[in-house]
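Q: I'm a student working through a structural biology exercise. My instructor gave each of us a protein and asked us to get a predicted structure, then write a short paragraph describing it. Mine is F-box domain-containing protein. I'm not confident about reading structure output yet, so if you can add a plain explanation after the tokens, that would really help. Here is the sequence I was given:
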Amino acid sequence: MDLLSLPDQILTCITLNLQLKDLLALGDVHSRLRELVYKNPEIWTSDLLFPVQDPNITDKFIKTIVPRITRHYGILDLKMICLPLSWKGYLMIFDQFAHSVKHIEIQATTRSLAALAHHLSVFAGNLTLLQRTNKIPITFRQYALDEDDDYALGDNLLHNLKDQFKHTKLDDPPFERLEKFQVSLVDQESSHLVQQLHVLTCFLSGRPVGESNKRMREDYPFCSNKHIRHETHSQAPHYLYQ
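A: Happy to help. First, here is the predicted structure for F-box domain-containing protein. I'll explain a few features afterward.
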């Protein structure tokens, strides 16, 4: 049977049973299938993104594939478990889903998370400076793709800005709905790094660092989708929003 002879409703049902690599392959078959795959929000669920320890989920993959996905409010949870991503890959993922995501979980090496924390600090510093001068905030993607270091900050300035994150509230935080950010270091422990990420994710979600919120103390459940496509490791994570 020719897939192209099937109505979109049937094709969508078929895609819900596919894993990520098969879904992407389907989208490469024909322009109509490509349109259906990337523009249909029903297809893109939290369980589809991203396969655990998938060596194919690289920065290049994220830069090429993720922007094609239609923006919608269906992605509430993001799990990035032991993926070969640099800080740029993480920021490009954040850029695509920051408007909707409520729960982020990352398991990575200390080196990878330290790089992420550093660049989130510089990104947050830029947002602070732009807000002070009533300028349009930059996006995660703009920062990640900056090849000319337009957003670079001096060490002293960055240090001073970091001290202000705990006392500054963004008018337009990039994480509009984030409630919980979990991180697990797969190689060693680093309380300083965990605390640094805690401050940054609170700041970038518009929440005071010292805020006491009972809702944050509760485990935010992952969405239960009908089509569970990937399994995840169960390690003891650091809950940055508690």
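A: Here are two points you could use in your paragraph. The radius of gyration is 19 Å. Residues 212-236 have pLDDT under 50 and may be disordered. It's a good idea to check both against the output above yourself.
Q: Great, thank you!
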